[in-house]
Amino acid sequence: MLDLRAQYRSIQEEIEGALREVLESGQFILGPQVEALEREVAAYCGCSFAVGVASGTDALHLALRACGVGPGDGVITSPFTFIATAEAISYVGAVPLFADIDPRSFNLDPNRVEDLLRGRARASVRGSEARIKALLPVHLYGRAADMTALGELASAWDLKLIEDCAQAIGSEHSGRRVGSFGQMGCFSFFPTKNLGAYGDGGMITTDDPALAERVRRLRQHGSRIRYLHEELGFNSRLDEIQASILRVKLRYLDSWIEGRRRIAQLYRQSLDWGPIQTPEDDPAGRHIYHQFTLRVPRRDDLKEHLQKKGIATMIYYPLPLHLQKAYTHLGYREGDLPQSEKAAREVLSLPIYPELSPEQVGFVARTIREFYQT
Cα–Cα distances in Å, from 174 out to 149, 161, 179, 180, 284? Predict the structure, then answer.
């Protein structure tokens, strides 16, 4: 699915130089590398501030907490995402309220969000009395959600708008990069992301100086001054080694994104055929193709066929969050969110990374076509 060794070999000298600099400095937590990365990510995303934290999950958790989301609150989000999105809502004592997705973009459908807000859709048994306080869209697979429509809903209903940008750094909607639309944007630097560390890491972006300062406090045990604690916080600090690696990689991010976009176009040219539905490029922005995800019939049989031919694939995600055992207490039933459930039965993500050759892409495409032609 992803060859991180090929990427490392292409920038090996710069990475090793950055690591030596940190090791020789003797400073490993919240030092000059983190501060520089925060400035660079803020500038890249078009935001005033960025705050490094220990993971993408922590970014979501601390952003919600900084925005004052807590017990008794409801947060509208997508059921078709990694569980961290909903986990973070649960961490602060709030209730995830799931709205269905748009079948083409796989992102939150603004019409379904509005249905929840107007009480036209079943939320959940436990969450039905929650006061809806925030909207947490996910920019899935590297395609920005419809932030124009979702932003208008958040404004009209006085909701905090927090973006889950874990898969989408560099993605754009209407000329703006994700992470710059809401009160806060939340990023993951998990190694498989388009901008990945060599371990865990995360970042929160914002234009609000008070929110930035609150997150800085929360990530450091609720403290601004050593041993003086204004509130109960957490240990969620991005370390210098990961920051130094990310600073090297950030310089290459846009060229890597263009590489992914070229590969996506090659896949589309070969696979936009018959029963196969390829992801469309975003007409309102820039899709960064963190994943290239098909919708196909006989998905599990195709996955097995490709595996036998030596082609790795992944299913993101096989079971929507509203049907996960961890959320049975919310009272959702199969059929409540049909688009998310249908996507979970049909999606299959193909290998995509800048170092893939046209020959490799052609081999994957031919193998898929052969499966449906036999």
Answer: 12, 17, 13, 12, 6
CATH code at position 295: 3.90.1150.10
Listed residue (91, 54, 97, 58) closest to 74, CA to CA: 97
Residues pairing with 108 in the sheet: 101
Structure tokens at 334: 């199969």
Number of domains in the chain: 2
pLDDT tens-digit series, residues 218-272: 999 999 999 999 999 999 999 999 999 999 999 999 999 999 999 999 999 999 8
Confidence category of residue 119, pLDDT binned at 50, 70, 90: confident
- Residue 210, CA distances (Å) to 49, 66, 329 in order: 10, 9, 35
**pLDDT, position 246:** 98
Residue 103: exposure state from Cβ atoms within 10 A (0-12, 13-18, ≥19)? middle
Instruction: Name residue, tokens 């499966």.
Output: 371
Q: What is the mean pLDDT of the chain?
A: 96
How is residue 142 written in tokens?
């590297």
pTM of the entire predicted model: 0.97
Instruction: State which of 215, 250, 285 marks the end of a domain.
Output: 250
Whole-angstrom Cα distance, residue 206 to residue 50? 6
Q: How far is CA 334 from the centre of its chain?
A: 25
Are 228 and 323 found together in one domain? no
- For the chain, give the percent of residues with pLDDT over 90: 96
> Which are the contacts of 318, defined by CB distance < 8 A and separation ≥ 6?
344
β-bridge pairing 172-173 and 176-177: antiparallel
Same domain membership, residue 265 and residue 243: no
Are 182 and 64 spatial neighbours (Cβ–Cβ below 8 Å)?
Answer: no
Q: Is residue 245 domain-shared with residue 267, that is, in the same domain? A: no
pLDDT at 233: 97
**How many degrees, rounded to 5, is the angle at CA 167 between CA 28 and CA 14?**
40
- The span from the CA of 311 to the CA of 369, in Å, is 14
User: What band does 374 get if pLDDT is binned at 50, 70 and 90?
Assistant: confident
